[in-house]
Amino acid sequence: MTSWSTLTRALVVIVVLPSLALSAPRAGATRPPGPAKRYTVEQFMETTSVLGASFSSDEKRVLYSSNETGVFNVFSVPVTGGKPTQLTRSTQDASIAAAYFPTDDRVLFTRDSGGNELAHLYVRTLDGQEKDLTPGDEHRASFFGWSQDGAAFYVLTNERDARFQDLYRYDAKTYARTLLYAGDGEHVPGALSPDEKWLALEKSRTLSDSDVYLYEFATQQRRHLTAHEGSASWKAATFDPASSALYLLTNEGSEFIRVERHVLASGKRELVEQLDWDVLSTVFSRRGTWRITRVNEDGRTTLRVHDVKAGRRVSLPGIPEGAISGVSLSRGERRMAFHVDGDRSPGNLYVYDFETKKLTRLTDTLGRALAPQHLVESERVRFKSFDGLEIPALLYKPQQATAKQRAPAIVFVHGGPGGQSAKGYSSFFQVLVHHGYVVLAVNNRGSEGYGKSFFAADDQQHGKAPLQDCVEAKKYLAALPYVDGARVGILGPSYGGYMVLAALAFHPDVFAVGVDAFGISDWLSALRELPPHKEALREALYQELGNPQTQEAMLREISPLFHAEKIRRPLLVIQGANDPRVPKGKTDALVEAVRKNGVPVDYFVLPNDGHGFSSTKSEAETSVRILSFLDQHLRQSP
Fold it and tell me: Ranges for the Peptidase S9A N-terminal domain (predicted)?
């Protein structure tokens, strides 16, 4: 699905706008002098999003997903560059590439229905037909990787019991499957050893405290590997290709996540890689020549490539500045595919050849009408919150904003709890900034990437200290010489949408307007009615947010639905009709309650979607509506 930068997934409006609306501002809106080049929303939304990477069996093509057709579909492109080939042709539901088969040109991909988040795993056969490998109506499935020899692949599915994730082995030729591990709702598969003798399992006690267990298939015994005191995160990263060691990610005894190696035969544990930032992942190439580590470095994802035999890092000349994602290594270990995403350059797919050291860009995703010099680079900033805690944020300043022509501004709150606003391209942010709005994407306490103390600082504090960080963000903006402090709004998706509603209810005089995109308004019912597939996280979410059985009063206190009478600033609410996380009925009740206050409320129901956008058309239409709402209620406010 498409996204607004850190927007978790996205939106569709109930009223289809005429295409003219995409290129025209709202009638009567007065805009400040803009950049020399003026772009329409439609031109910004012509930018393409691409996801994933997998090499073909002959390593001459790369598989990926793109929304260039308006909906995510699966494409293949030569490693030397050239015209991509479209492999799936969905017109409504997102098709997300999983992998090429190691021996031929069959393709695995996932697809859900109407944004219901019940994705199934499909195979595209050599004749172009599509076959659902995980049929059914009420379950979800995901690809879990290939066997070392390529004769089988692994799939996670909760079809047996919606609460449990089971691991199956599928024969690559016949698709016959065998149950490898039956989930119990607590221990979730994290990594499978190449020799199929061991399965690493993860168990979460809270969102910042977790453990790893080792399951042996021969004995069907489970062993606890990471017993510890206090709060610490332990995750399974990968097994080495020889199945002799399990690589772990942990922040036990430190603020940031590092890599450790657990030797299976001896139980010996040793440090592998430690930095002053969180390690996000580490993986091996098929034969173990390379180990690739991704690092969350102050809101930007960086890449570290290690030559395992030589025991040293490898330089990667020519890789452009930006966030790295979607890393994939060819089975022959010669090539690496990945995405690079910058503030003024949308994510593009690249292939790096280790032998020739040649870097080839395979996609061109920036809208054809846009010029990078007319886009805005974010600035990493920090401000002090009410209690002295330093809060990181990304600041986007319009080119036309000056002390003489002060601009309206937006505090953007990411999804979560536990998400992060990071460096990278956002068509939506660029639209807002291009049209004269300053944007501050705040990483309030509880955001990931800034150490485990910062991450845990929002536990049982939701609607209070993290929200106060957003209030302080508004003060920070108001102190900038080019911002009009009387015209600052707040906008956010998912958990960020909750923060918008909470800000308007609990600090009703701080923000001039609010834009809530599928935010939770009632934590009490949300935690009582968690979907079955979230069972493994139930206790962790209770520790993070509150237990509805024992902390009902507290959850009512922080839920905007029960305080809607306090909201008196204009509000835009966006809701997916099929949203499995935020039921429409609860949002209906909130909108009705706020409207009783005589407050202007625009309510967009997304009829064919869940917790996010399904198409670029939807994203463009919604962006126009948001811009129109802000022009009317924020730009024109006194």
Answer: 100-363
Return the higher-pLDDT residue of 41 and 16.
Answer: 41
CA triple 333-338-343, angle to 5 deg: 160
Report cis status (omega within 30 of 0) of the bond before 417. yes
What mean pLDDT is predicted for residues 185-211?
95
Residue 44 CB contacts under 8 Å (≥ 6 apart), including other chains: 367, 370, 427, 430, 431, 434, 623
Helix, strand or coil, per DSSP, at residue 80: coil
Q: At what angle do helices 616-630 and 427-434 cross, to 10 degrees?
A: 30
Asked if the model's pLDDT at residue 8 lies above 80, the reply is no
pTM: 0.88
Q: Would you say 347 and 50 are in contact if contact means Cβ atoms under 8 Å apart?
A: yes
Which pLDDT score is estimated for 34? 58
Tell which residue, 487, 492, 470, has the closest CA to residue 633: 487
- Using CA atoms in the order 405, 411, 412, 415, what is the torsion angle rounded to 10 degrees? 180
Q: Where are the beta strands (DSSP E) in 23-72?
A: 50-55, 61-66
Report d(CA 431, CA 43) in Å as an integer: 10
Q: 115: which residues sit within 8 A by CB, 6+ positions away? A: 1, 9, 576, 578, 579, 608, 609, 610, 611, 612, 614
Based on C-alpha coordinates, what's the Rg of the chain? 24
User: Using 50, 70 and 90 to split pLDDT, how confident is the model at 416?
Assistant: confident
SS3 label, residue 486:
strand
Say how many CA atoms lie within 13 Å of 527 toward its Cβ.
22
Question: Across the chain, which distance is largest between two alpha carbons, in Å?
Answer: 74
- Residues whose CB is less than 8 angstroms from the CB of residue 589 and which lie 6 or more positions away in sequence, other chains included: 521, 561
Task: Spell out the residues 6+ positions from residue 143 whose beta carbon is closer than 8 angstroms to its own.
Answer: 98, 99, 108, 110, 121, 153, 154, 155
* C-alpha distances out from residue 559 to 75, 118, 415, 498, 519, Å: 43, 28, 16, 8, 11
Sheet with strand 269-273: strands edge to edge: 234-239, 245-250, 258-263, 269-273
Average pLDDT rounded to a whole number, residues 124-135: 97
Average pLDDT score over residue span 507-524: 95
User: Cα(9)–Cα(241) distance, rounded to whole angstroms?
Assistant: 34
Angstrom distances, CA of residue 285 to CA of 41, 128, 297, 581 = 42, 30, 23, 36
In terms of residues, how long is the chain? Answer: 638
User: Going by C-beta distance under 8 Å and a sequence separation of 6 or more, which residues neighbour residue 549?
Assistant: none
Please report, for the chain, the start and end positions of each structural domain, with discontinuous segments joined by +. 275-369, 376-522+559-635
Question: CB pairs under 8 A, 24+ apart, for 212-219?
Answer: 212/236, 212/246, 212/248, 213/187, 214/246, 214/264, 215/181, 215/187, 217/180, 217/181
